[in-house]
Design a protein that fits this description.
This protein has helices at 47-54, 77-83, 99-104, 119-131, 147-160, 177-194, 205-211, 229-232, 235-242, and strands at 9-18, 21-30, 36-41, 62-67, 70-71, 84-87, 165-169, 197-201, 214-219, 222-227, 244-250, 257-266. It has 273 residues and is α/β, with parallel strands linked by helices. It folds into two domains: 1-75 and 164-273, 3-Layer(aba) Sandwich (Rossmann fold), CATH 3.40.50.300; 92-163, no CATH class. The strands form three sheets. The protein has a six-stranded mixed sheet with strand order 6-7-8-3-9-10, with helices on both faces. A four-stranded antiparallel sheet has the order 2-1-4-5, with helices on one face. It is found in: Cell membrane. It is a peripheral membrane protein. This is ABC transporter ATP-binding protein.
Length: 273
């Protein structure tokens, strides 16, 4: 799949938030099709809010989200879910649901009300579990798994959905460093082999710089920088977005920007989610 044929997701004049509080105001964003975009920023800057509106979980307070130029508000939900998938930050599963049953739920957008489960559905579920390394957990209840195992199962469900755009909010939560790398390698493989557009909210700046084709840096509900890691991961932007004094040097392995905080160089910032 070429980037030319990949669907385009964008925000136009977007305002978003909650009753009595706007977190995002007048935001424009064009997500590069067929690429990996990482969204970074300090706590409470609006990253998760933006992702939830892009995924149509929450409606915008103003402006619009467009899929290939069409307002997503007029696209049937099943059709939208066949193109755009979301892994939220804190997903939950019903008690007693097994891994295989949860991953199979990713096929729901592709099946009509009276459509029987097909061999293609089974193959997609099996492939998703194999790619995330959870095949051996298929019969285990999701609630019995460790945090890291659960996270990989949720990613498997998102893969089973087979979306052309996949949005993930902190997909490496609860994972140790080696498993974080495995997940990010998996997402990069999905992007490179399937042409899936990947959009990830991530806290770890150096991993974001290493894996991103594009970086979106947010601060206080606005985008302060958008471009390649080399273009936007600068000392000035790090200071503005994170209230942090840092050196930015080349990663010795990948030559991508590596952020090294200066001891005692952080400023007081408001805590939040």
């Amino acid at each position: 799949m070429t980037t030319a044929s990949a669907p385009r997701l964008s925000a136009r004049g977007l305002a978003a938030g909650y009753p009595g509080r706007r977190v995002i105001e007048d935001l424009d964003l064009e997500l590069a099709p067929g690429r990996i975009t990482m969204i970074i920023g300090a706590n409470a800057c609006g990253k998760s809010t933006l992702l939830s509106v892009l995924a149509r979980v929450n409606a915008p307070l103003a402006g619009r989200v467009e899929l290939d130029g069409t307002d997503v508000a007029v696209i049937p939900r099943r059709a939208f879910a066949q193109t755009v998938g979301l892994l939220p930050q804190h997903p939950s599963a019903p008690d007693g649901l097994t891994v295989a049953e949860l991953v199979a739920r990713g096929r729901h957008p592709h099946r009509g009300v009276f459509q029987r489960w097909s061999a293609a559905d089974s193959a997609r579920v099996d492939e998703a579990m194999a790619r995330t390394g959870v095949t051996d957990l298929a019969d285990r209840p999701v609630g019995d798994l460790s945090g890291g195992q659960r996270q990989r199962v949720w990613i498997a469900m998102a893969l089973a959905q087979n979306p052309r755009i996949l949005l993930l909010d902190e997909p490496t939560t609860f994972l140790d460093l080696s498993h974080q790398i495995e997940v990010l390698d998996l997402l990069r493989e999905l992007n490179r082999t399937d042409g899936t557009t990947i959009v990830v909210v991530l806290h770890e700046l150096n991993l974001a710089a290493r894996y991103a084709d594009d970086l979106v840096v947010m601060s206080e509900g606005r985008i302060v920088a958008h471009g390649t890691a080399a273009e936007v991961m600068t000392t000035d932007i790090i200071s503005e977005a994170f209230a942090l004094d840092a050196l930015v040097i080349p990663d010795p392995l990948t030559q991508t920007p590596l952020v090294v905080p200066v001891p005692g160089g952080s400023h007081v910032v408001a805590d939040g989610h």
